[in-house]
Automatic annotation (TrEMBL):
Domain of life where this protein originates: Eukaryota
Alphabetical keyword list: Hydrolase, Magnesium, Manganese, Metal-binding, Protein phosphatase
PANTHER family per UniProt: PROTEIN PHOSPHATASE 2C (PTHR12320), PROTEIN PHOSPHATASE PTC7 HOMOLOG (PTHR12320:SF1)
Reactions accelerated catalytically: O-phospho-L-threonyl-[protein] + H2O = L-threonyl-[protein] + phosphate; O-phospho-L-seryl-[protein] + H2O = L-seryl-[protein] + phosphate
InterPro entries reported for this sequence: PPM-type-like_dom_sf, PPM-type_phosphatase-like_dom, PPTC7
Protein name: Protein phosphatase
Cofactor names: Mg(2+); Mn(2+)
Amino acid sequence: MNRLVVRTRGLLRNLVNLESSLQPSIRGRPYFAFVTSVSGFDNKHTYYKTQIRPRWTYGDDACFVSITEASCVLGVADGVGGWRSYGVDPSNFSKKFMSACERLARSGRFQPDEPMLLVTEGYHEVLEAKTPLLGSATFCIISLCRSDGRLYTVCLGDSGYLIIRRGGILQRSAHQKHALNTPFQLACLPPNEHGHFHRDGPEQAIQSSVKLEPGDIVVVGTDGLFDNLTDSMILQEVQPLEGVKCTSESDDLLDLCATRLVNCARHAAENPNFVSPFANEARQYGLNIAGMLCSITLIIPFSSLCQSYRLYSSSYFSQSCHCCLHLLDRHACYCSYHPLIILSSLLGSFSVVPCCQQLALVVKQH
């Protein structure tokens, strides 16, 4: 216990020095921030309400959020379910890929306008892993430059995003497919089997950028969302967020909107009479089928403009790791704080950690 107290005092002294070094760069000029809610549905197990889950996975889907002083980077990936026929867990690839991208984003080696470089490096890391990995995934990664509010996006396959401004769609990602239910995908293939599987390179992903305004809403999701809900249905569900300021009220509304969107997508997929976007596409191939019941993952970032920040240290968390991370997520995302990865060996950017008692250091809006 005494050693812990001594270590804590040392960290607090370092915190004062860190605050002094950071303040000149961030005080006195506005910074863009994301207030974020994550929600998902695991079609293989059970429905999870908006909260931190181990490794941020929902069925075959995986996601991450990484927030630094320069950028807010988040992404989703959908493991291609066809690998299950070969005895391969489709979630393995999506989890490894998102984990690699998260770690690289947290490293600070990439500029906010380089999400494609992040994808390329993350994919290369998965391919070169010591443990052989099979599988493939679609993905969507977006990166917000906090200094000027420009959003950079990179997508492959049928995972994508919507940018909503004043009740209308400002920008929408394009879906890439080889055929019905066969999207473009990054892949790790068995040796000498390249002719039997689809594998698309990072260079085939679609890149874009747009200048965000405070109050813009971004919906990032896998095909479980966009295959089952029309754009008008998504707009209707996020409409309560229009004109809302970043307060505790917006926290609750964002949480509610994310949960409702996942529920709507799930119910639409289970409704045999609803003509979903996937059903419309299937009819072009002469197939009469309804929605596509699969794992659903979405992240809703709500853009805001903060004037300045100050550092503070929270009290020790005595809850379980799950509760500790859930509290950290609400601080870092809902309240426009962003974590400083000082105890990097213990405290990852929204990752499962082995220690239940730790000092959380965050930047707070002042």
